[in-house]
Amino acid sequence: MIRVRAAAPRLRGKVSRSLALIRKFHAYTLQDETSGVSVHVRNHGVTIHAPRHGIKQAFELDYVWLRDACQAASSVQASSRQKLFHTTDIPLLDVQSQLLVDEAQPVTLESASELQLVVRFAAEHSVVNAFTKAVSPNAVKQSEVHESRFPLSFLLQHIVPDRYRAECGDLLALGQCWDASKLAEHCRPSKVDWASIRENDNVLSRFLTSLLRDGFAFVSDLPTQPTGTDPGSDQAKIATLARRIGEIRHTFYGTLWDVQAMANSRNIAYTSVDLGMHMDLLYFQNPPRFQLLHMLRKQVFGGESMFVDSFRVAERLWLEDRNAFHILASTPVAFQYKNAGEHYYFTHPTIELARDCESFAGDPLGKSQMPRIVAVNYSPPFQAPLPLHAPNLKTRPEREEFYRALNKFAELTLAPEMIYTHALREGECVVFDNRRILHARRSFDWDPSQIHGGVGRWLKGAYVEGDSVWSRWRSLR
Fold first, then answer.
1. Which among 31, 114, 207, 311 is least surrounded, fewest beta carbons within 10 Å?
2. pLDDT tens for residues 173-183?
């Protein structure tokens, strides 16, 4: 049952309960007793109070936000689901003298299958697409009263923080920093077989949730034939897996690439020596978020893969040396690839914090109350000389402070309890967050004369865009 309760506007010291007078001043209250929702209508917007739904303190929505969020057919194109106007097309009025809403009946509550807030916007303040008005003035329609309907679930989705995070996907809230010693206790990381993840969306959803939680996960029994790198029928199966979880990112290494030990290699990864903790392609402005490595052939002794959660390293630094944490979060480090006709160069802080204005922002995670981290940037093999004229690096004392902080970070990455070691088997593929998980490899030995083709260890690799993985995870939920 919906009730209309008049507010008491100030009118020369007299209180009037005339509904007509109240509507003129746009001050009245709508109450739905069934749902416990109350809406107070005022000249500049509405306030919503719904304790049963998580709105324990009245929340204000202005009319400009409501008009901008309208999902009516005249506001959102049906097939593309894209807006037909700009936020800047909505008139900004002096709320003391003019109103965006219709004078006759600006706001009502209606109960159908779901409670709806109905807002009527005045014809004289109609929203006209400025671009259309400029280039196709004849296409502009005559002004008329516009009605926007907002289901209660839609409003709650935007007002209640937990519902907003659930709908938009609070990616960092999923992350659980780990020490390697703790993973086995909780049956982590996730390990699934290719047959189950290939067709079953429920398995894929759980796999992606685990991937975002731990930063890495494994897929077994991925066929090792064919082995082709270029698109086509001969392309390796890692491409099928990559497209199952997101979209492959093409780099100067190609769509797919091979990791094979070879003489006179231009990349240390293509040798048999120890390969220390690092991340890939940090000399890009936007390094790839996810990486896949599929073991096609393993006929060597050694070569175990090693993984470290750099977010946990940063958390320990936050707890043990707060000053070092802040130095690494504010000092630029240069990364470079200058070889084979290519020259890539970019600077990043070692610890990249979320900004308040971006989707990664939010409350600190865990008991440590460490600021939210978007990414870590650590790749010693590709680190260029420090930029001497950059902030925090102009003087010798500043550089010495940075050296000490980076040394503490590096020591933590090599602490035995931090390192998860796993010997990839043939047909096994690891998927990991390249902006969070440090990966490394022990050295290995083999006898090329005893192996067909002379290659004893062969991995096929691919990079996948983070946005596509996050989109796949949201849609599968």
1. 114
2. 888 999 998 89
For the chain, domains (ranges, CATH) are 2-168 (no CATH), 172-476 (3.60.130.10)
Residues in CB range of 324: below 8 A, 6 or more apart: 317, 404, 405, 408, 409
C-alpha to C-alpha distance for 246 and 431, rounded to whole angstroms = 12
pTM of the model: 0.86
Is 137 strand, coil or helix?
helix
Q: What percent of the chain has pLDDT over 70?
A: 89
* Residue 454, Ramachandran bin (φ over 0: left; ψ between -120 and 50: alpha; else beta): left
What distance in Å separates the CA atoms of residue 435 and residue 278, rounded to the nearest whole number?
10
Closest CA to 303 of 280, 271, 265, 278: 271
The DSSP bridge partners found for residue 58 are none
The residue behind tokens 């005339």 is 18
Question: CA–CA distance from 159 to each of 59, 138, 203 (Å)?
Answer: 7, 39, 32
Mean pLDDT of 280-301: 94
Q: Which residue has better confidence, 99 or 408?
A: 408
Give the pair of three-digit tokens for residue 400.
């010495």
